[in-house]
Automatic annotation (TrEMBL):
Keywords: Membrane, Transmembrane, Transmembrane helix. Residues 136-147 have a biased composition (Low complexity). This is Uncharacterized protein. The lineage of its organism: Bacteria, Pseudomonadati, Bacteroidota, Flavobacteriia, Flavobacteriales. The chain crosses the membrane at residues 158-176, 182-202. It comes from the Bacteria. Residues 128-147 are annotated as: Disordered.
Length: 404
């Protein structure tokens, strides 16, 4: 089953306001919703772009185009596009439609405000960012100093011990400032914390929630594209792997790549498999934002082994077996049983399906269609190189499975 790219969600409306009034609102969307960060603009063509982050993805760009219809009427077009790739799934479209609703809501709220009110919103945000000033008490006497020392937080034993456990830097400071704890206890507690720190530094097998594993002996990788950007405070690498890795091995490689570049606030890595042509999506991703997160989109080595075992259980004459490693990461087996032809799909999660096919000859090779016309008119062609080509209803070859 194919995963077809879906056009960027877009919506156009007209409002009864001059374009300059709407333009002021568009330029200040982040005053209403801080989720959207101003990215770029083209004042000549009245085009503005914001960006927004999303969970487990690089997020989206929000393109806003303004068109002057008349003196008191403006056309607004909002289009959502992914920072990487295109939209493939319905839930992505749902998220994008939510962005469109949020953007129009912000524009509506700001357009109803006067320029003075918008300026006041800016000033309020600036005031929030200013550090608070505490008055200095210059008139201290000995009595006040003694009372302050007695009531100081570091004179409370229970609080000092608690901080030594949950936040040792502050706890140690309070420990040595305390006047009631004996020195031998101070040395003992300090030594114990030092031993714990040294022991934790010695454990290099963990990175975040992942346990690192040694990379395979013959493993290699190439950085095929580097889209790091200091202005955006991010590193972004596209890496080609010589073979599949386990989650623990990806953690080891991710740490190595992380240490290879100047540290930024975010670090994204996209892994592709060598020999897999025209990847639509990465086989796996990892990112530090700030903690390490790993997502394996494709099939793992263990899943491949399980797929191969299930692919052996065929009741009939096998025409061929193929590995589809671009969309579904599944095994495809075409076989004959009696006078009928079937295709068996073995997915990476162990699920299987058997569907009857109809066979015909073409110039490109043998064509197989779903007998009941399933999957929106998709079909297969077994070409002369024994590769199984998959086509959609528009006769577009969206992926090709390789022989096993």
């Amino acid at each position: 089953m194919s995963v077809s790219a879906i056009p960027n969600p877009k919506k156009t409306i007209q409002v009864d306001f001059p374009i300059e009034r709407v333009k002021l609102s568009v330029k200040n969307i982040n005053l209403i919703n801080s989720k959207y960060t101003f990215s770029s603009s083209n004042e000549i063509f009245n085009q503005y772009t914001y960006s927004a982050l999303e969970l487990l993805s690089l997020g989206v760009y929000v393109d806003i185009n303004l068109n002057n219809i008349s003196e008191f009427k403006t056309e607004i077009t909002v289009e959502i596009r992914r920072k990487i790739g295109s939209f493939n799934d319905s839930y992505e479209i749902t998220k994008s439609n939510d962005h469109i609703v949020s953007i129009y809501d912000c524009i509506a709220k700001l357009t109803c405000k006067s320029p003075e009110e918008i300026e006041n919103l800016k000033n309020e945000q600036i005031e929030k960012l200013k550090p608070s000033k505490k008055p200095n008490n210059l008139s201290r006497n000995n009595s006040n100093t003694q009372t302050s020392t007695t009531n100081a937080w570091y004179e409370k034993k229970w609080l000092v011990i608690f901080l030594c456990v949950v936040f040792f830097p502050v706890g140690l400071y309070g420990l040595w400032k305390n006047t009631t704890i004996a020195n031998n206890w101070k040395f003992a507690i300090t030594s114990l914390i030092a031993i714990i720190i040294i022991a934790s530094w010695g454990d290099n097998s963990k990175i975040g929630k992942y346990t690192k594993e040694e990379l395979p002996k013959n493993f290699s990788y190439d950085i095929i594209k580097d889209e790091s950007n200091e202005v955006l405070e991010k590193n972004q690498l596209y890496v080609e792997l010589s073979g599949k890795l386990t989650e623990g091995q990806i953690a080891t490689l991710a740490e190595e790549l992380f240490n290879s570049k100047k540290e930024e606030r975010r670090f994204y890595m996209f892994y592709q498999l060598k020999g897999v042509e025209n990847n639509v999506s990465s086989w796996a991703t990892s990112h530090f934002d700030p903690e390490l997160e790993i997502v394996i989109t494709g099939s793992t080595t263990a899943e491949d082994v399980n797929k191969d075992k299930l692919s052996e259980k065929i009741e009939g004459e096998v025409i061929g077996k193929w590995d589809e490693n671009k969309y579904t990461f599944s095994n495809l087996i075409i076989y004959k049983k009696g006078n009928k032809t079937f295709i068996k799909t073995v997915f990476k999660n162990g699920q299987t399906s058997d569907v009857e096919l109809e066979e015909s000859k073409t110039e490109k090779g043998i064509r197989f269609d779903y007998k009941d016309g399933g999957y929106n008119g998709e079909y297969f062609i077994l070409n002369n190189e024994n590769r199984l080509e998959l086509y959609n209803s528009e006769n577009k070859n969206f992926t090709t499975a390789t022989p096993k």
